[in-house]
């Protein structure tokens, strides 16, 4: 191997002013300091959930990534464990990049990408294994690369292995780029999770008549749900399509069937998983109770200037979600354990709002809001605001069924995201607000909007403004 350098950056230590930092989330997972991105190795094992994550503990920027590690019994209270992987071997010295976890011979294993950039700028990507070597699954020993190189016809943008087992064999999907710069998803198979056979590309640009589908596919995840095989992930370089895919980097899913014998995946169209501004690199796991759970990065690549860097941290992970597929569509709900976090309840029930009236509740920035509205006669707006100034608004127009997340008043990347709902004159919202994170579940999981917003104080007003009349079945807030 040619000359390889280790990144030397100054270590951050404890977060500055974490106790007074009004932007730091209380019930979303974030790193104590530095930059966090993709969830990795999400798995339930030995009586607890393990959620690893891409972490640069040395700076609030992307760099030589570690795998941070956290564990939880309830998917909401996470305990930080010692780092699982450090970029300290020749084959991963510029980053232990994203990947997944699995259990082999009763031992927790990690499958990740070793990232190396040589001094002439060449990238080398290998797919590597590590395994837990202590009873509490906190110490990991690296076993080295098991897929040494990308296949012929592909570049070294070859990463993010997601592993599963099927009929006694191991499979994995890996995000890849062809030498013509087309983003594709590659399928591999193995008998022992160490020796892997390349089966071919199964989805992406120029596969299955798909075209214009970008230059790289990151973080693929393929899993069985209901009667379908779902492939989620992040194609980079796709064009906006109506209201969809308007971010710099996007996320979404195919619903289809994987034919294991022919290594082909037939699927429908690619749809967004989340309609908000910041959502990327989602990863799922199958829980022992049968649920398919998802975690994602509330951030996107190339957007790393946020006010929190003044306090030495940036980004967070989403709430864990439960997935179901109905009529060819993905539904997402917050993991049901969230109800345990509910504190004091306040709000209104069964009231009729006449033309141009409004109702409000005062709030701190840490709450869940349930809103059920019927007979909506014209557009209404739900606003979250500091004294006078609204920094995020949700608008719903019953004539077009279009919901708009309006961040134009926010100092951070002002803009709007829209999507079309099925609901007409009825709407149900479940909004989680956590200091500087908003996650909005619309119509019992039909759509979700996830975004960052950066209020200037710690106190706000939640106001519902109607144009013409509507009936509010509930407008209830739980403090968290
Ligand atoms: C997605 C991604 C992955 C890569 C990791 C590096 O956000 O770019 O493809 O493994 O982040 O941190």
User: Which class best fits the helix and strand makeup?
Assistant: mainly beta
What is the third-level CATH name, the topology of the largest domain?
Tachylectin-2, Chain A
Radius of gyration, taken over Cα atoms and rounded to an integer in Å? 22 Å
Number of domains: 2
Tell me which oligomeric state these chains represent.
single chain
Quickly give the CATH architecture of the largest domain. 5 Propeller
GO molecular function, one term: beta-fructofuranosidase activity
Subcellular location: Cytoplasm
EC number: 3.2.1.26
Organism: Vibrio hangzhouensis
Describe the structure.
- The chain is an all-beta fold.
- The chain has two domains: 4-337, 5 Propeller (Tachylectin-2, Chain A), CATH 2.115.10.20; 343-479, Exo-inulinase, domain 1 (Jelly Rolls, Sandwich).
- Helices cover 0% and strands 54% of the residues.
- The strands form seven sheets. Strands 23-34-25-30-31-32 form a six-stranded antiparallel β-sheet, with no helix packed on it. It has a six-stranded antiparallel β-sheet with strand order 24-33-26-27-28-29, with no helix packed on it. Strands 4-3-2-1-19 form a five-stranded mixed β-sheet, with no helix packed on it.
- The model is unreliable at 1-11 (pLDDT under 50).
- Beta-D-fructofuranose is lined by residues 37-38, 54, 65, 97-98, 113, 159-160, 218-219, 280-281, 301.
- Beta-D-fructofuranose binds next to strand 1, strand 5, strand 9, strand 13 and strand 17.
């Amino acid at each position: 191997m040619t000359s390889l350098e280790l990144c030397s950056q100054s270590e951050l230590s404890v977060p500055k002013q974490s106790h007074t930092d009004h932007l730091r989330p209380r019930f979303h997972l974030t790193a104590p300091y530095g930059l966090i991105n993709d969830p990795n190795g999400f798995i339930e094992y030995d009586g607890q959930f393990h959620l690893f994550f891409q972490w640069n503990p040395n700076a609030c920027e992307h760099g030589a990534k570690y795998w941070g590690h956290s564990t939880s019994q309830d998917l909401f209270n996470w305990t930080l464990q010692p780092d699982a992987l450090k970029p300290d071997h020749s084959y991963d010295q510029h980053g232990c990049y994203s990947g997944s976890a699995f259990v082999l011979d009763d031992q927790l294993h990690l499958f990740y990408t070793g990232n190396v950039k040589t001094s002439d700028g060449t990238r080398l990507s290998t797919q590597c294994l590590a395994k837990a070597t202590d009873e509490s699954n906190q110490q990991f020993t690296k076993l080295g690369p098991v897929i040494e190189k990308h296949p012929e016809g592909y570049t070294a943008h070859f990463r993010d292995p997601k592993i599963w087992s099927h009929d006694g064999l191991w499979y994995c999907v890996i995000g890849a780029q062809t030498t013509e710069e087309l983003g594709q998803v590659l399928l591999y198979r193995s008998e022992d999770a160490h020796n892997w056979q390349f089966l071919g590309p199964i989805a992406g640009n120029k596969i299955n008549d798909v075209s214009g589908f970008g230059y790289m596919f990151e973080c693929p995840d393929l899993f069985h749900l209901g009667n379908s095989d779902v492939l989620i992930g992040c194609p980079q370089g796709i064009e906006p399509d109506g209201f969809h895919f308007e971010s710099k980097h996007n996320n979404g899913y195919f619903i289809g069937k994987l034919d294991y014998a022919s290594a082909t995946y037939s699927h429908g169209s690619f749809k967004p998983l989340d309609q908000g501004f910041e959502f990327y690199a989602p990863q799922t796991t199958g829980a022992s109770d049968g649920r398919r759970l998802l975690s994602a990065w509330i951030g996107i690549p190339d957007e790393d200037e946020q006010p929190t860097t003044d306090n030495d941290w940036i980004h967070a992970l989403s709430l864990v979600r439960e997935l179901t597929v109905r009529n060819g569509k993905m539904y997402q709900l917050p993991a049901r354990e969230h109800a345990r976090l509910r504190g004091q309840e306040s709000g209104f029930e069964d009231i009729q709002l006449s033309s141009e009236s409004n109702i409000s509740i005062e709030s701190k920035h840490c709450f869940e809001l349930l809103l059920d509205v019927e007979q909506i006669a014209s557009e209404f707006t739900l606003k979250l605001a500091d004294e006078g100034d609204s920094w995020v608004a949700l608008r719903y127009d019953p004539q077009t069924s279009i919901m708009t997340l309006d961040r134009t008043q926010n100092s951070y990347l002002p803009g709007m995201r829209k999507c079309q709902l099925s609901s007409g004159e009825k709407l149900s919202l479940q909004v989680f607000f956590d200091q500087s994170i908003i996650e909005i579940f619309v119509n019992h999981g039909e759509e979700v909007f996830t975004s960052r917003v950066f209020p200037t104080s710690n106190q706000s007003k939640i106001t519902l403004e109607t144009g013409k009349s509507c009936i509010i079945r509930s407008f209830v807030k739980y403090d968290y």
